[in-house]
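forwarding from the other thread:

> can someone predict this with flavin mononucleotide?

sure thing
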Amino acid sequence: MDIFQVFKDRRSIRRYKDRPVEADKIMQVLDAARLAPSWKNLQCWRFLVLDDQSRKAAILAAFPEDNPGRKAIAAAPVAIVVCADPADSDVANGIEYYVADAAIAFEHLCLAAHALGLGTCWMGWFDESRLKKALGIPDRIRVVGVTPLGYPDQEPQARPRKALAEIAFYNYWEKMSP
Ligand SMILES: Cc1cc2nc3c(=O)[nH]c(=O)nc-3n(C[C@H](O)[C@H](O)[C@H](O)COP(=O)(O)O)c2cc1C
């Protein structure tokens, strides 16, 4: 699939078919994440794949009832917990780069999943300490996000995006066109 088509068609998927994800496809999406760029190439990301339904169920309580993606974690055959070890990254200009490192890898994973016909939904609204406790993730590790992974059972409309003129400038701040 053309990469621009992947950018265009990816959606947050919150409904999943009751169909397992092939082990090689899980490896492919993890490998796409592995190839992401990172601070000094330190690769602070860690991925915890939950394909055991009881392990996956154990994290549900960490998500607020009104998180729209909560049911997706329950319904999808797989969830992936995207973590980072901040000791394998750095802080510059007050920016904690482990977040950026893990986020880039996470988006690689989501785009690769879409290219393979799989759905994902980046989820960031959860109780981190509860989730870490449920899975036995060490204290020093941060959980940057969680996604369900599975075959989509919906085709959501594209959500609106700001026009380029609002967000991209040429040569001078807020100068819109070239
Ligand atoms: C950092 C981040 C955190 C998010 N957290 C959640 C979440 O907790 N629950 C949820 O249902 N969706 C979550 N989303 C998905 C966004 O709502 C979604 O990406 C946005 O509405 C645009 O829709 P689209 O992904 O289909 O283009 C999150 C997305 C990002 C990037």
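The CA atoms of residues 51 and 78 lie 5 Å apart. thats all i got for now
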